[in-house]
Amino acid sequence: MDIHEYQAKERFIAAGIPVPPGKVATTADQAESFATDFGCAVMVKAQVHSGGRGKAGGVKYAADAAAAREHATNILGMDINGLTVEKVLVTPAEDIDTEAYVGVLVDRKTQAATFMVSAEGGIDIEEVADTNPDAIRKLAVDPRDGLLPHQAYWLANFLYEDPGHIKQAAKVIGQLYTSFVDAGASMAEINPLITTPDGAVKAIDAK
Length: 207
Fold this sequence. Notes:
By secondary structure, the protein is α+β, with helices and mostly antiparallel strands.
């Protein structure tokens, strides 16, 4: 069963992963109201069980509440890969320094939870695997031990050089594994995991 981005973010928040706040709107009026409440630039994001939302025009930056209303009007009812958009997520826009990919899934061959991380985030991991496989680090997790702290650090160290970023990312990776196991999921993904100008590491997307 697939779940929407906002539902995945709820699980991430429960696991302690730093996720920006967000509100789900089903009308343009609601989107405008939520953007007004946030009082800053926002992203208006289509909520459908499909990848490629941005490429399809389902993810838009809104500098103010009026723009959020306009984008919600255009996105609601949109067809994305055969799915009709009935909800949008309104969330504060973040200043982004870097984008990384962090995901864990059940490897069908080994039947083990396997992490994949890459400093090339914000794009499909399949594209990275095809064009630059060396940009991906993988780790199979032994279910008897779970993800160990040094393994999380090893993965985070592949993403960043800054010690502060590595420490935060290692914590996020551990929390993602906890969320993945607690949900009985077959896949959990953060794309992108960002760093901000003030040195924070945040998950601004969830799958």
